[in-house]
Design goal:
about 20% strand, transmembrane helix, 3-stranded mixed sheet, alpha+beta
């Protein structure tokens, strides 16, 4: 449900480029080029022209397009439809709505409400009643002005209803909610109607072409200045948009869930008068048992006084079964007596014959093959499960395998940071610029490691075996799916070191990697953060990095952005995703030996960390190298080992310790 932010004072109407406010009058119309204040955007950042004139009639292709993109807007118009948008604006609107529909498609009502927000903002014939243009810049070479910022006034009830229809919509690709990607630094749990709209209107979100300041007006009030807040129908998520369509599913909308009939309550207790009914039979049963005991005792005492004499029954002759049993017992006793005498008299021949028999019967172990593959153990070759797995492997490739490096900082102190945007935050010791730069260098060295297949002599690289979702056929090293904190900076050391001036209201300061990190951890699907750095949160390979993968000790949304759990992890990790061997990718025969790995270069000297032999045994070089200014004092294995066994077998292994911090590498077989 929506959580409206209470109004402390009436909304302030900024100086306006929209002096005429009336039904059927526009605030802007057409396109006036690109916004000079937006540097990067996923969509074209074209902005409208100031045009406080009457709405234009929609005909031909414009009317057809609006009937498809904004059916509610066109349906509510009487007579010849009039709108405040051109065909070019409608085409851009269609693209923008299509992007949002990809995220909200699971709930048609939510997608329609979200589209209606922009349909009315851009094309409503009564645009001047709820839109107030506050900033415009002259268009070079013309007498027109381009809108770069405007205010938009909505009725609180409409905004809350639209937000409520989207609040429970899931996003299967992330396992979370759609609002996690549409509310900026706030997760779906902390998102409100105001925060949701604020993010949509933020020109720094990578999608909005200009700044839109949304104001939610409490029901029954007016912002003044001739403005009337927009209040149109908002579809409930439990409603079907038409007879041919279905409402949102129960997973995405609680209103669509069937009513659960509560179970019948327990039957009223049995009572005898004011007492519980169970108390009545118990004393009666106890009395009957006591009476029965006394009667039995009396009967036995009376019987003993009568002096009854017992006579022994005459013995009977043994039956047929008893005679056969005795005969069999005597025969077995004689046979085992003779066998024992024979073994005691000739021990060596008996042991020799027994040994020959045991060895002969054990020859079958030479061809015995133990099945250890869980697939073979738990599914028959012709079973449906095996057929479906074979189909999946053929069309989508084998299941992914992962290996990870976990970095902690046990002997370092944390730090505090006063963010201009996010307030005071405490950063754990592992989140420091020095550690992240060192981690980035380590990650790049691991990604650059190579191996050779002795049978073919082919050089094997990480991109030959990695999972590359956006470039599966011929991936480069940058296309590999690697999830790490440094991916928030696209594995770019220069971006990690960036600093920019930032103003937040009346507070002015600087932002750096910490602000970007906090933002991306709370909004990992953002293509552009809200800081002055204007960096993307997407990884170098093009996908998102979720905080529960990149941060150790991150417990999920119950921590939330308020507690600063993202800034205080117990460790950070690097996770490599690789595929199994299959045609078209790496498929060497036999075992693979790894080239000696260079650890650190100082002048002309090289310090080798170690190598993996053709048998897969890790062999240390026996030196004490340094890296990143930290002396290597103890280590158990090389950083990377590559071997091939039954198709593919890759290992990132064991533990490497440094002074100041250490890297723990989970031993994982791919």
């Amino acid at each position: 449900r929506a959580h409206p932010i209470p109004w402390l004072q009436p909304p302030q109407v900024a100086p306006s480029w929209t002096p005429t406010r009336s039904a059927g009058v526009c605030a802007f119309y057409g396109e006036c080029g690109y916004n000079p204040e937006v540097n990067t955007s996923l969509v074209a950042s074209k902005v409208p022209c100031v045009s406080n004139t009457a709405a234009r009639e929609a005909t031909g292709g414009l009317l057809t397009l609006l009937s498809s993109v904004c059916p509610d807007l066109v349906r509510g118009m009487a007579g010849a439809p009039r709108v405040c948008c051109s065909l070019a604006q409608a085409v851009a609107l269609q693209l923008s709505v299509a992007l949002s529909s990809a995220v909200l498609a699971r709930c048609p009502a939510c997608a329609r409400n979200f589209a209606n927000v922009y349909c009315h903002n851009i094309c409503s014939p009564d645009q001047s009643l709820f839109v107030n243009v506050t900033r415009a810049v002259p268009v070079e070479g013309t007498a027109q002005f381009a809108v770069v910022e405007y205010q938009c006034f909505y009725q609180q009830e409409f905004a809350d209803a639209a937000f409520a229809s989207c609040h429970g919509v899931r996003l299967p690709a992330t396992g979370g909610f759609a609002l996690d990607t549409m509310c900026g630094r706030y997760s779906a749990r902390l998102c409100t109607a105001q925060r949701w709209l604020d993010f949509q209107g933020d020109k720094n979100n990578g999608l909005a072409p200009l700044q839109i300041d949304f104001h939610l007006v409490p029901n029954g009030t007016s912002p003044g200045g001739g403005l009337e807040p927009l209040h149109v129908r908002a579809w409930s998520c439990g409603e079907a948009l038409s007879e041919q369509e279905q409402p949102c599913s129960c997973q995405d909308c609680a209103e669509s869930c069937p009513t659960i009939i509560p179970p019948a309550g327990p039957a009223p207790p049995f009572r005898i008068g004011a007492a519980r009914g169970s108390l009545g039979p118990r004393p009666l049963a106890l009395a009957l048992l006591a009476l029965l005991f006394l009667l039995t005792l009396c009967c036995r005492r009376c019987g003993s006084k009568r002096g009854i004499t017992l006579q022994a029954a005459p013995a009977r002759a043994p039956g047929c079964s008893a005679r056969w049993g005795d005969a069999g017992h005597r025969a077995l006793a004689r046979a085992f007596q003779r066998w024992g005498t024979l073994v005691a008299a000739h021990p060596l021949p008996v042991l020799a014959v027994a040994a020959v028999l045991v060895v002969g019967l054990s020859m079958g172990f030479r061809v015995l093959r133990l099945t250890t593959d869980p697939v073979e153990l738990w599914s028959a070759p012709g079973s449906r499960a095996r057929q479906e797995k074979a189909f999946y492997d053929l069309h989508f490739g084998p299941f992914l395998r992962t290996s990870q490096v976990i970095v902690t900082a046990p002997r370092r102190n944390g730090s505090s940071y006063a963010s201009v945007l996010f307030g005071a935050k405490n950063f754990s010791a592992v989140l420091s610029a020095e550690v992240l730069q060192a981690l980035l260098e380590l990650q790049q060295r691991l990604a650059a490691a190579t191996a050779q297949a002795p049978g073919t002599g082919r050089t094997v690289r990480l991109q030959d075996v990695c999972y590359a979702p956006l470039s599966p056929d011929s991936p480069a090293a940058a296309d590999c799916c690697i999830n790490s904190v440094t991916q928030y900076f696209q594995n770019n050391g220069s971006r990690l070191a960036m600093v920019a001036a930032q103003t937040n209201g009346e507070v002015t300061g600087t932002v750096d990697w910490r602000d970007h990190l906090i933002y991306c951890a709370n909004s990992p699907l953002s293509f552009k953060d809200i800081t002055a750095l204007e960096l993307s949160c997407m990884a170098e390979y093009g996908g998102p990095v979720f905080p529960y993968i990149a941060f150790g000790g991150y417990t999920g949304e119950q921590d939330g952005a308020r507690s600063g759990a993202v800034a205080s992890p117990r460790g950070i990790g690097v996770v490599w995703s690789v595929v199994g061997c299959h045609p078209g990718r790496w498929d060497p025969m036999g075992q693979v030996s790894l080239h000696p790995m260079e650890r650190h270069r100082t002048g002309s000297s090289r310090h080798l960390l170690g190598w993996v032999s053709s048998s897969g045994v890790v062999s240390p070089h026996g030196m004490s190298p340094t890296w990143g200014g930290c002396h290597l004092t103890q280590w158990d294995a090389t950083l990377l080992g590559v071997a091939c066994l039954d198709g593919c077998y890759i290992t990132l292994c064991d533990v490497t310790h440094w002074d100041g911090y250490h890297v723990t590498q989970c031993h994982t077989s791919w």
